[in-house]
Here is the input.
Amino acid sequence: MSSTTPDSRISLGRRAFLQHGALLLTGISAAPLSRLAAAAEAKQRGAVRIGLVTDLHYADKPPAGSRHYRETLAKLKEAKAQFEKDQPDFVVFHGDLIDSGKSLTQEKKHLETIVKAISAMPFPKNYVLGNHCVDQLTKAEFLQGVGQQESYFSFDRGGYHFVVLDSCFKSDGTPYGRHNFKWTDANVPAPELKWLQADLKQTDLPTIIFAHQPLDLKDTDAHAVKNSSEVRKILEASGNVTAVFQGHSHRNKYSEIGGIHYCTMVAMVEGSGLDNNGYSTLDVYPDGSLVLNGFRKQKDYHWS
Ligand SMILES: [Zn+2]
Here is the structure.
């Protein structure tokens, strides 16, 4: 465990600045660094490195609108090659791993295919549940398919605390599955809120949250977790949460609320061809700085 203290944590409330490329990392070097050199330097500085991929929507079916379901396999292969260069400590899949099939059997096949492709990545993996993951499948079936015990949980790594949230519950607290829900009704139910509050209370470490449905929108927004304001209240009250990474709306978006960075990442499924791919690596530093290196359509961010 590192010697991170509250004083060395990211300074909350400071306005984040956005830039393209990891070439102007304040305090590292005035000279431009190549992405590879910056990656090597990040490792030397003891950062935890995380691979991030969201909204893959893999399905063996023709494209619909801007969603190219089959192409996810090639896009994932590109992300794998990049991650093999950058050597993340772990990878987070931020939900909507699969898209709907004609039958439950077909959806299970989609999951099997994408998990097989993901298993070629030689890194520990964490999965956030997306609404499409548990459209027909039950949570138990999805979790069994990806080899994960829980849908929400936390862990420590390199002086940071990481929390995976599950917002795939109806407003009455029923878990999604077997077509029993509307995608606009996403909630973090009372037992999970209670767990979250207790989990954040037991740590002094700077904390990063991984979610699928956005937590920075108005509760009434179609893409929002319906009780986002309640969740944000808990995150802000802990005083430890520095950033939330999320997917679901498929577009790059950034906001800062109550001193917490909210980053919505671009969907891998959107657009045809590798030029339209999107994924990233996140470096977290002992001094609290966060650097998101976005590839293809994913934007870069540097928060210090
Ligand atoms: Zn999606």
